[in-house]
């Protein structure tokens, strides 16, 4: 989560050799037969590994050189590995296990990790076939899943696994400012037109509302994308999440699933953060973070999935609300 950019491994190939992935997966999963399927729509290269029809695993590795990463994305493989080493394999919230983590380019030309097992289907693959009722049930189940995740306590704010050089923050206000500053630095580097200094002033002005959060809890900042959610179609239930690379200790309500929650999600989670003035201020600050991230990311990696105009409208609304507080 360092502010400064880190260099990519110089030996990272444009695409890992599929045979190398198959050999690596077979050794890690202790299976003679592993099928490898590349999944589309992910920033980091992601492969579905199957050893049977019952469940699957995921291998994730760095993207190729032509993919422009933001500062906070550089360490995603390491972050996910550290997170799953800390919390993985819990039966109560269906977190995957970290099967293998390799922080050299020796085997497939890139850092990589293998996680799983996952049972069911990736929501993005099956969503077009699901009824409105089934989608509402899955949304409710996702709310219940996130609530269980958000009950996990940490000791300090910031990275789930503290490194020797970065021990985390005692203050949520400082941790939030650090996260937002990373996005703003990327925006400023790219000369994207946004009121950076005004946003910094708003964060300082509303520090006391952020300081009301005193207990670090597990947060997946980017959780709610359909391609991240694994579901049991028959039971209409969430069975897991593919990606824990955006995990931090912080305020659970900063997760993107609270950006624009559905009624079914809210029913599953329970109380939403809109009861007090401090809660509303924090939610506007989190909208600033997520909308600014969408704007900056769209500039670095243009995508049809991102609606920059909507993100700018959300950003402007949140800034206006915070400026009037």
From TrEMBL:
Against Pfam families, the record matches this protein to: APH
Q: Where is the Aminoglycoside phosphotransferase domain?
A: 40-253
Gene3D superfamilies according to UniProt: 3.30.200.150, 3.90.1200.10
**What is the name listed in the Swiss-Prot or TrEMBL entry for this protein?**
Aminoglycoside phosphotransferase domain-containing protein
């Amino acid at each position: 989560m360092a502010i400064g950019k880190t260099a990519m491994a110089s030996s990272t190939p444009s695409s890992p050799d599929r045979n190398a992935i198959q050999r690596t997966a077979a050794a890690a999963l202790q299976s003679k037969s592993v099928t490898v399927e590349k999944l589309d729509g992910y920033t980091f290269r992601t492969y579905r590994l199957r050893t049977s029809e019952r469940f699957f695993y995921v291998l994730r590795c760095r993207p190729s050189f032509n993919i422009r990463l933001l500062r906070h994305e550089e360490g995603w493989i390491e972050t996910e590995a550290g997170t799953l080493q800390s919390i993985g394999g819990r039966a109560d919230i269906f977190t995957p296990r970290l099967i293998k983590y390799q922080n050299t380019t020796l085997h497939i030309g890139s850092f990589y990790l293998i996680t799983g097992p996952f049972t069911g289907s990736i929501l993005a693959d099956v969503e077009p076939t699901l009824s409105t009722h089934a989608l509402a049930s899955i949304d409710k189940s996702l709310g219940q899943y996130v609530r269980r995740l958000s009950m996990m306590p940490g000791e300090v704010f910031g990275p789930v696994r503290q490194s020797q050089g970065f021990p985390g923050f005692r203050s949520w206000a400082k941790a939030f400012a650090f996260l937002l500053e990373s996005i703003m630095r990327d925006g400023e580097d790219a000369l994207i037109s946004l009121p950076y200094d005004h946003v910094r002033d708003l964060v300082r002005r509303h520090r006391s509302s952020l300081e009301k959060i005193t207990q670090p809890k597990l947060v997946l900042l980017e959780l709610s994308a359909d391609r991240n959610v694994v579901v049991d179609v028959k039971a209409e239930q969430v069975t897991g999440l593919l990606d824990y690379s955006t995990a931090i200790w912080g305020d659970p309500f900063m997760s993107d699933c609270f950006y624009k929650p559905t009624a079914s999600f809210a029913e599953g989670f329970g109380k939403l953060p809109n009861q007090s003035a401090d809660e509303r201020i924090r939610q506007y600050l989190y909208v600033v973070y997520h909308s600014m991230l969408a704007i900056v990311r769209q500039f670095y990696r243009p995508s049809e999935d991102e609606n920059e105009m909507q993100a700018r409208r959300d950003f402007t609304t949140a800034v206006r609300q915070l400026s009037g507080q």
